[in-house]
């Protein structure tokens, strides 16, 4: 190594994209550098000037402008600029000026091209923004086994299978012989071709269901059935299974959602094994599974409240093990739903069976499966149209109170906006809900738009979920047909804008002002979720999760090719940053919040976040044009 | 502005001096160097090819101490080209004191393997030829070079230099404002290389490596011209 260049290479080696270069390449860069000093106020790059070098800020600060003279960015020590011009037409697109006395290292073009060719990470960093966001997300994902490992890897042997006519005694004996803990019950092919397959003797079978250890206890012994009962009489006619090429994570979520411990794994329609909860736990010390089953075993609200600290512990562990934002969001939502469901079960135990059918629904982040560790409760009750307030409301008000108080005790504080089933307005029969939603869509006003942005992320948690499905259908059908509503929602989605980026230890706003911290939810994830919701409503999507909504949007031509990918990566990056900073808070025994302080943001994360902010900003600009206010005549 | 800056000491007629030496030099290497001459005194600094020079020595006395390393970086007011840098460790004929060894980050074995000054003189002269040399504190570089060359060839090596320390002194020592400050009892501003750089927002380097210091000197000159002069400033106003 060239000792005399230490000064230069050590400095560059501390900043991306140079920090990951090999020593040999870094030496070469340092030896090719040209240096120039610029006094504060002096122009470094003039608009349209020819450019054949990459600029690196050794000291000082630089302002970069857009063509129109509007501030584009403010850069400090270790930042680079000029790469876009080098990658495109060698003309300066963004002129730059020294803000302070500044020393610039110029890296010649041929060196720059070699770095792009020899080092993928360098190329990703400097190249166009989409691959950059993509590579950042990919990098996060690479660290996570659960997402890439397929569930078939957990299978050690074929499942024990018995015919429906087999006696429970014989089935129990086979379980014992094979040291298994469940059998699959086979029957003549019937109504469900999904689970119909042919065995090695070319005989067709249908998988009817699974019978587990505990089923023998609860459905056979406890009910006093004879050992000669055929298993077909005992097994529940409902198969929940996963495909063998699904990820371990997907299998885990499936078990969480359905609260089951055994999960049959299929290769196409043929059963190839059974995964047990403990297989996944052994594979990944994922404690959210334990937590969920623990929730369902609590005998009262006090017991549930005692589990609250376990939620943040599970959250921290999940993040440390490399979960991505979707895994964290859906695991936390599942945990939140489980608390809610258990509280409803306890309420029903206390109050007796409900006088009319109901569905308890989750709104907002829980409905989207994007819950964070910092969250309050947003819920509502949909009641059957047989509901008679005089007779029935006392029951449901009490139920709502039990749930709401219980959730508050479990760490889900009361909703400040009173979006809770305890509020009479949000405890109504289905017909009233339909009227609400129709009015909001047909005649939007500021209050109704605010409600729409909360209530149009909705999902059932417990009870008669068909009612909530009807509401989801209504929203999906009506909103897409209402240009006025879409335009109003689009405008509403622009109320919160992202910052420009970071500058030194500050968050920089578009007008050049600085802030000490940034609320990443308010300025990042929430406006992006709002924006995705508008597009999703426009294309009649019935999905609630933002990533699923983007998939639906992709099937239309609402967005230019590639845009939805950028939004997907941006959402993932911003969500993960927020999550990581909440973990930092928890590790420092601070109450987690949605703020991030720039000094806790690594330089790589800064660059990624900045790209994400820009993607959001562009998408917001597009939204305005995509959903214009209809002229008064066409209204 | 000129009113505020005291008159500079007498500066030789450098082009004439170099032409004279080119004629009289006996050593062909020196003759070539002097013949390359210098740009005329009215050349704007913005157009002059320059070279920053720094050397590490075993002490301050050119007659008793020796050169151990030399770093040079060719540059212009616009650009310092690191790819053209040169750096030599040289083996002194006088013994190396232990204390200065640590000081220079150069080890005994580095020096044992190094060429003697006479062996690198060719390369050095070639890098300097035709360029205006820039140093920080000219007395060290000028005296040591002159002395070392004289000791080997019997004739000396003197050429015009821009001394960034002298430039710094003009604004921080000799200006009327600086004198006034001194008169009211303020301590004088330090005009050492790294203190001077700090005034222009230039980064702190680990000093005492001849090449790093040469780079630091080149950067300092760029900054001084950016702050105090124009690129049109004739070099004859700056050299000594």
Automatic annotation (TrEMBL), chain A:
Cross-referenced SUPFAM superfamilies: cAMP-binding domain-like, CBS-domain pair
Stored InterPro entries: CBS_dom (IPR000644), CBS_dom_sf (IPR046342), cNMP-bd_dom (IPR000595), cNMP-bd_dom_sf (IPR018490), Diverse_CBS-Domain (IPR051257), DUF294_put_nucleoTrafse_sb-bd (IPR018821), GlnD_Uridyltrans_N (IPR005105), RmlC-like_jellyroll (IPR014710)
Keywords from the UniProt entry: CBS domain
SMART domains: CBS, cNMP
One GO MF term: [protein-PII] uridylyltransferase activity
Location of the CBS domain: 155-229, 235-291
Cyclic nucleotide-binding domain sequence ranges: 17-115
Domain of life according to the entry: Bacteria
Entry protein name: CBS domain-containing protein
Lineage: Bacteria, Pseudomonadati, Pseudomonadota, Gammaproteobacteria, Oceanospirillales
From TrEMBL, chain B:
InterPro entries per the UniProt record, alphabetical: Ribonucl_H, RNaseH-like_sf, RNaseH_sf
Keyword Nuclease carried by entry: yes
GO MF annotations in UniProt: 3'-5' exonuclease activity; nucleic acid binding
CDD domains referenced in this protein's UniProt entry, alphabetically: DEDDh
A GO cellular component annotation in the UniProt record: cytosol
Keyword Iron part of the UniProt annotation: no
UniProtKB keywords: Exonuclease, Hydrolase, Nuclease
Exonuclease domain span: 49-230
SMART domains: EXOIII
Signal sequence, start to end: none
Pfam families tied to this protein: RNase_T
BP GO terms, sorted: DNA metabolic process
Protein name (Swiss-Prot/TrEMBL): DNA polymerase-3 subunit epsilon
Organism the protein comes from: Halomonas caseinilytica
The organism's taxonomic lineage, starting at the top: Bacteria, Pseudomonadati, Pseudomonadota, Gammaproteobacteria, Oceanospirillales
């Amino acid at each position: 190594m060239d000792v005399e260049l230490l000064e230069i290479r050590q400095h560059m080696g501390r900043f991306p994209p140079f920090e990951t270069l090999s020593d040999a390449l870094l030496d070469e860069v340092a030896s090719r550098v040209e240096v120039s000093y610029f006094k504060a106020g002096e122009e470094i790059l003039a608009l349209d000037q020819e450019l054949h070098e990459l600029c690196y800020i050794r000291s000082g600060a630089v302002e970069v402008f857009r063509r129109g003279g509007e501030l584009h960015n403010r850069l400090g020590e270790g930042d680079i600029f000029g790469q876009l011009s080098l990658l495109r037409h060698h003309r300066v697109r963004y002129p730059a000026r020294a803000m302070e006395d500044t020393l610039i290292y110029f890296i010649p073009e041929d060196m720059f091209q070699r770095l792009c060719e020899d080092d993928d990470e360098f190329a990703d960093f400097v190249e166009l923004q989409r691959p950059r966001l993509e590579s950042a997300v990919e990098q996060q994902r690479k660290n996570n086994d659960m997402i890439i490992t397929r569930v078939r890897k957990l299978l050690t042997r074929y499942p024990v299978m018995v015919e429906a006519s087999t006696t429970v005694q014989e089935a129990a004996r086979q379980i014992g012989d094979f040291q298994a803990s469940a059998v699959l019950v086979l029957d003549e092919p019937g109504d469900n071709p999904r689970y119909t397959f042919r065995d090695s003797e070319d005989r067709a079978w249908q998988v009817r269901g699974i019978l587990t250890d505990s089923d023998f206890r609860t459905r056979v012994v406890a009910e006093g059935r004879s050992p000669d009962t055929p298993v077909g009489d005992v097994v529940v006619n409902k198969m929940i299974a996963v495909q063998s090429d699904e990820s371990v994570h997907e299998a885990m979520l499936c078990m969480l959602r359905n609260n089951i411990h055994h999960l049959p794994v299929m290769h196409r329609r043929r059963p190839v094994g059974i995964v047990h909860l403990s297989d996944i736990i052994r594979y990944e010390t994922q404690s959210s599974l334990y937590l969920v089953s623990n929730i369902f075993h609590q005998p009262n609200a006090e017991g549930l409240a005692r589990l609250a600290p376990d939620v943040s512990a599970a959250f921290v562990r999940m993040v440390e093990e490399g979960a991505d934002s979707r895994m964290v969001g859906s695991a936390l939502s599942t945990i939140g739903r489980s608390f809610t469901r258990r509280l409803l079960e306890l309420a029903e135990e206390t109050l007796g069976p409900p006088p009319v059918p109901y569905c308890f629904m989750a709104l907002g982040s829980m409905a989207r499966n994007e819950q964070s560790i910092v969250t309050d409760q947003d819920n509502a009750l949909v009641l059957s149209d047989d509901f008679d307030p005089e007779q029935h409301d006392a029951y449901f008000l009490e139920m709502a109170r039990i749930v709401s108080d219980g959730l508050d005790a479990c760490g889900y504080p009361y909703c400040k906006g009173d979006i809770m089933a305890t509020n009479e307005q949000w405890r109504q029969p289905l017909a009233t809900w339909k009227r609400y939603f129709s009015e909001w869509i047909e005649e939007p006003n500021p209050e109704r738009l605010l409600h729409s942005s909360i209530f149009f992320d909705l999902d059932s948690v417990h009870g008669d979920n068909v009612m909530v499905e009807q509401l989801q259908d209504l929203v999906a059908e009506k909103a897409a047909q209402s240009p006025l509503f879409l335009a109003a929602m689009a405008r509403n989605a622009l109320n919160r804008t992202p910052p420009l980026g970071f500058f030194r230890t500050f968050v920089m706003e578009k007008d050049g002002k600085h802030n000490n911290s940034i609320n990443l939810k308010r300025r990042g994830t929430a406006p992006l979720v709002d924006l995705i919701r508008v597009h999703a409503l426009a294309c009649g999507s019935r999905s609630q999760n933002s990533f699923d909504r983007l998939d639906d949007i992709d099937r239309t031509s609402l967005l230019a090719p590639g845009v939805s990918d950028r939004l997907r990566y941006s959402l993932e990056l911003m969500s993960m940053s927020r999550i990581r900073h909440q973990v930092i808070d928890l590790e420092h025994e601070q109450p987690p919040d949605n703020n991030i302080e720039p000094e806790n943001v690594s330089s790589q994360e800064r660059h990624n976040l900045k790209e994400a902010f820009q993607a959001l900003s562009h998408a917001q600009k597009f939204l305005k044009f995509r959903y214009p206010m209809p002229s008064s005549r066409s209204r | 502005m000129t009113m505020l800056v005291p008159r500079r000491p007498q500066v030789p007629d450098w082009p004439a001096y170099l032409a004279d030496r080119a004629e009289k030099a006996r050593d062909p290497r020196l003759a070539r160097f002097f013949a390359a001459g210098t740009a005329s005194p009215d050349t704007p600094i913005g157009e002059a090819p320059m070279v920053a020079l720094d050397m590490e020595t075993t002490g301050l006395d050119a007659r008793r101490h020796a050169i151990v390393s030399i770093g040079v970086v060719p540059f212009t007011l616009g650009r310092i080209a690191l790819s053209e840098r040169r750096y030599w460790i040289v083996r002194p004929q006088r013994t190396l004191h232990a204390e200065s060894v640590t000081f220079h980050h150069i080890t005994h074995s580095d020096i044992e393997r190094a060429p003697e000054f006479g062996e690198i003189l060719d390369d050095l002269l070639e890098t300097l030829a035709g360029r205006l040399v820039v140093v920080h504190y000219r007395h060290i570089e000028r005296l040591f070079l002159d002395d070392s060359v004289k000791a080997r060839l019997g004739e000396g090596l003197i050429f015009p230099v821009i001394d960034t320390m002298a430039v710094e002194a003009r604004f921080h020592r000799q200006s009327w404002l600086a004198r006034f400050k001194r008169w009211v009892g303020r301590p004088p501003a330090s005009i050492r290389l790294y203190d001077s750089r700090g005034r222009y927002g230039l980064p702190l380097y680990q000093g005492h490596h001849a090449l790093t210091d040469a780079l630091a000197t080149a950067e300092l000159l760029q900054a001084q011209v950016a702050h105090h002069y124009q690129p049109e400033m004739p070099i004859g106003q700056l050299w000594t």
